[in-house]
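The data layer described in this paper is built around a simple, fixed record for each protein. Because each token names a local backbone shape, the row as a whole describes the fold. We quote a single record here, exactly as it is kept in our systems:

***
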Amino acid sequence: MAMFGALGIAGTGVTVYRKWLDAVSDNIANVNNASPTSGNAFQARYVRAQAVDYGTGNGGVQVAGITLGSAEGRLVHEPDNPLADADGYVRYPDIDLGAQMGELIMAQRSYQANLSVASRAVDAYQAALQLGRNV
């Protein structure tokens, strides 16, 4: 990966941030999903990233795993909800929409930055190839 290191490292960043975007969009899509109190609430997904070969400059980043949020959720009194228990409660996921939107913006910008690095690396490699042709 020595010659195309920038392209490879940016590619690992694109992959990690795509996974992060997928997790955040899944959380946002399920923020209003009600479930009965006898069941579990939707569990938010959080992407854990880790450096590969930290300090060498050759590794990039990878997804270390997906952490799930609490299945407890939060109880909301909605007696008109068809999923409500005898006391009128339903279970919603414990997901903060504002925090998820902030994470969405960070993941999107980071994804774009890694794509930009990859694009500039391709341009630099093409320019180097053109130099070799003109000799």
In short: The chain has two helices and four strands.
